[in-house]
Automatic annotation (TrEMBL):
InterPro entries: Cupin_2, Cupin_HpaA-like_N, Homeodomain-like_sf, HTH_AraC, RmlC-like_jellyroll, RmlC_Cupin_sf, Tscrpt_reg_AraC-type_HTH. The keyword DNA-binding applies. The keyword Ribosomal protein does not apply. Keywords: DNA-binding, Transcription, Transcription regulation. The lineage of its organism: Bacteria, Pseudomonadati, Pseudomonadota, Gammaproteobacteria, Pseudomonadales. This is AraC family transcriptional regulator, transcriptional activator of pobA. Residues 186-284 form the HTH araC/xylS-type domain. It comes from Pseudomonas indica. One of its GO terms (molecular function) is sequence-specific DNA binding. Pfam families: Cupin_2, HTH_18.
Amino acid sequence: MPGQIPVFKLYGEQRAWPTPDLIHCELIAERSRLHGWEIRAHLHGDLLQVLYIQSGRAEVEIDGQRRVLERSAVQLVPALCVHAFRFSEDIQGHVLTLAQPLVEHLGAALEQQPLSRAACYPADDHRGRLDVLFETLAHEYGRHEPGRELMLQSLISALLVWLARQALADERAQALLSDRGRTHLRRFQALVEQHYREHRPLDWYASQLGLSVAHLNSLCRRLAGQSGLQLLHQRLLLEAKRNLVYTSMTIAQVADSLGFSEAAYFSRSFRRWTGVSPKDFRSQR
């Protein structure tokens, strides 16, 4: 047990891997019902799990990141991720657990590696195929007919291909969003350059860009490391420093040139941003 995080083969079991297979397949309800529909935080040292949630509600927490699933989805949980679940009593779905040697063997042929990080993929548009795939997996797993191992590996390979395609589509979507985000950020910076002396509120800039304030702030933090308001203040501060260092304008004139209604307000803002007054800043330079 590293720290306080329990390590299981299968949740709640202290014994070793319970079957001779490198695969374990069960309904979500089978195990979660035994634990009051809650699977507390734990990890698996050398197992990957794929949860197919068909219906019901699931609260998923992986490495401190929490999400609520109320539509069909496939949740991927790689080895060594600390994870916990809380399910509604009407939960419908499957849990597929794969030992790491099998994961590495079957995943070696994939150019896109979908199994190295936790991910959640919406399944609404793929319900038909996924229902058949997991139900066939469960059927084969529970029987011992000729060719069982080959059939199971074939079905899991099909699932891994689906996961790899979802991961690729997700990466492409993220790249597109990132490109759009950079375009929005450049447009925001251009607007700031034009209007920073006017002290317009952030929601004015957001409306000019056709974004919400929250979305604009999110883009600024993700791509520039600061909020939208911080970028606005940063541009004002840059111009104030230039004027204090390279011109002979009085502090009142600098404040007026930057659109401040009062020199005292400018001085308070400058001190809040830099920790020193405009007068001290000028004398230090």
